[in-house]
Amino acid sequence: MEVASTFISNSSLLINKSISDFSLDKLSLGNFGFSDLKNLNWVSLLITSVIALLIYDQIKYQLNKGSIAGPTFKIWPIIGPFLESFDPKFEEYKAKWDSGPLSCVSIFHKFVIIASKRDIARKILMSPKYVKPCVVDVAVKILRPTNWVFLDGKAHVDYRKGLNGLFTRNALQSYIPAQEFVYDRYLTKFQEITKKNGKYPFFHDFREIMCAVSLKTFCGDYITDDQIRTIADDYYLVTAALELVNFPIILPFTKPWYGRKVADMTMKIFEQCAKLSKENIRSGAIGNCVMDAWVEIMDDQSNTVREFSNREISEAIFTFLFASQDASSSACCWLFQIVADRPDVIQKIREEQLRVRDNDPYKKLSFEMIENMTYTNMVVKETLRFRPPVLMVPYVVKKNYPIDENYTAPKGSMLIPTLYPALHDPEVYEDPEEFIPERWVEGSKASEAKKNWLVFGTGPHVCLGQQYVMMMFTGLIGKAFLFNDIKHHITPLSEEIRVFATIFPKDDCILEFTKRKDPKALE
Ligand code: HEM
């Protein structure tokens, strides 16, 4: 407060000084006329307005900040740490979380509150009365205003109920053959990449396999290989268009413009797939993808799910792709890198993979098989704890929100519960900076600490795809290490975290995939 008041008094001195300097200069010219007076008024008005704005900006910041942690005053007036947000650094986020249970920054007119403690983060995620997910302005234009993700309160809960059926046990097991088809195809491709290039950064290829798995799971055989390739190639333009810092109007040839083009093209393909799925299922076919499951649920007389148009289905499926793509690509990079670095983990995975296949490596994947991959599942779980793809989930405050007895978040501010600190809490996870899959054995402290498991959020917006994610990665990583020797080329940047929507190893995950001659061997 002291610094702010110094700033204010210095500013008013500055107003007086600039006016008097200006007047003296003009007067000394000896030909001071009416037009000069008009200029003088404009210039002084401008200077006064700018200074008043600066003072308002600082006072507003102080009032919003109250007693929580954060810079004493806005070091960069108006813009705040706007420039830093172009290149977010994991270490800077961590310093912010460590600075207090609630901390803040202000960027332009946006006041941002970061909640780092587990219980406060949970409380926020479970307070739909006060908060709703924060979407960048441009998201409404890209995902279309009619999209279900923009629903709030009861309308959101009701809509979600209709989607739950897409991720039940029955539905999930019908997706496995399509997923295995993509795993096999891409694992072969990864071997070919290695044959051609030797060691190679797999970051982009992991994004591509994740996109292909999603598209095949969502659209089955209704989507063509060419369409999958086009979407997988261009999808990164959607991520780039939806950066937190972006221009709200879509101007031609800007990132949002390219992003919307890709989104429109993708939703058009999905709409066509929905049409084909309805025709196919209604002619008696058995479903094997998310769209089929949706049609089956709509047609099931025993439940009350209404008919959804092809366009609605296409918009919702696009949100699945959108919600999944970055987080899954992040998890995929870390999973391959972390496991490849640990021969003991690889050996245990291989033992288990052979056991669940009755020692026949070529047995087709099934849901029961994946359910029995207890160790491989713990490896996936520990990877998600150790390197949680989503660090924070931005929400917006709908009305003044008393977060605790000392602090009320003002209406309109951005409130960001963080997930990372709860997942690295030393009280629950002994040696939290160590990768220890065994910490997840049934009945252990970690497995009982349900409140700390925030990888997928919690509350009314908790991730819809969480069971799907666990199933998909357990199946994928098991197969990948059963059939491949995967060598990770460690660099000084391998363990450094790059933030690009989610988190990635800074060296883009340099690996080599070599087909194993004998997948029955354990070494
Ligand atoms: C490793 C992969 C993934 C991670 C770490 C992840 C994490 C998250 C998180 C943290 C949220 C926000 C939860 C909240 O606000 O409380 C979320 C929401 C969501 N996720 Fe995921 N997710 C992943 C993959 C997926 C996949 C594969 C799908 C779809 C098949 C999906 C669908 C969704 C949807 C639809 C929402 C929004 C739900 C709503 O607003 O009601 N996610 N996810």
Automatic annotation (TrEMBL):
Heme binds at residue 463. It is an enzyme of class 1 (oxidoreductase). Pathway: Steroid metabolism; ergosterol biosynthesis; ergosterol from zymosterol: step 4/5. Coiled coil: none annotated. Keywords: Heme, Iron, Metal-binding, Monooxygenase, Oxidoreductase. Belongs to the cytochrome P450 family. This is C-22 sterol desaturase ERG5. It comes from Ascoidea rubescens DSM 1968.
